[in-house]
Amino acid sequence: MKFLIVGCGGMGSELARVLERGGHDVTLVDRDHAAVEALDPSLRGRAVVGSGFDREILAQAGIGLADGLAAMTTSDETNVILARLARHVFHVPRVVARLHDPRNAALYRRLGIQAAAPVSWTANRLADLLSYSELDAVASLGGGQVEVVQFGVTALLEGRTAESLCVPGEMHVVAVTRGGQTGIPTPKTIFQSGDKVHLAVSTASARRLRAMLELT
To answer: What is the pLDDT of residues 153-183, one digit of tens each?
Structure first.
């Protein structure tokens, strides 16, 4: 998969390393030439010097073919604009934006932007959000400690019960959408083809969930 990271600071460069270890192609963008020069030379991806607001710079960085973009600058306002530009103008499928000031969390939610708070989020978690499109995060609670994700029922899940995906203290199926109707399942609710499952999961258990769904 191909990813753009706008902002070459500590979190941006660490995210690039994690994504590259996962076998993904990464391009970093930063307007500060010194920040680009300071990048770890072991990073294999390209680095483009220029503003993330510049469409020519974004095109040069390959946004037209990007599977995801992470706005990792030092400004929440800049990150919001970059995230909306990526999603609504360039139609990038997966977008995350770093959140510095918790007071801006409500704004991120209203705009439908997945926020990454530096206190509770890590480069590994950001990489998860960008890389695994099968799990679509629809809500983030407690500053990112718990997420509600949704995913379609695959052949692996068909015929299994809701309780098979429940791990006390880690994850719980909170709703199932079937035939356009969403309801709260019982532990014995059986997944059917075409269902959409909504599940609350601790971010610390995200990898366990992917393993259970065989997404790793």
So the answer is: 888 889 999 999 999 999 999 999 999 999 9
Could you tell me the pLDDT band of residue 134, with boundaries at 50, 70 and 90?
low
d(CA 166, CA 199) in angstroms, rounded, equals 9
Q: What is the pLDDT of residue 64?
A: 93
CATH value of 147-212 in 3.40.50.150, 3.40.30.10, 3.65.10.10, 3.30.70.1450? 3.30.70.1450
Closest CA to 121 of 154, 58, 72: 72
Place of tokens 């994504």: 19
- The ranges assigned to domains in the chain are 2-131, 147-212
Greatest CA separation found in the chain?
58
What superfamily would CATH give domain 2-131?
A: NAD(P)-binding Rossmann-like Domain (3.40.50.720)
What are the tokens at 150?
């949704």
Confidence check: pLDDT of 212 > 60: yes
C-beta of residue 144 within 8 angstroms of C-beta of residue 175: no
Tell whether pTM > 0.70: no
pLDDT band at residue 127 under the 50/70/90 scheme: confident
Question: What is d(CA 55, CA 78) in angstroms, rounded to the nearest whole number?
Answer: 15
Compute the distance between CA of residue 150 and CA of residue 157 in angstroms, rounded to an integer.
13
| Helical residues (DSSP H) of the chain, grouped into ranges | 10-21, 33-37, 55-61, 76-84, 105-110, 123-131, 206-212
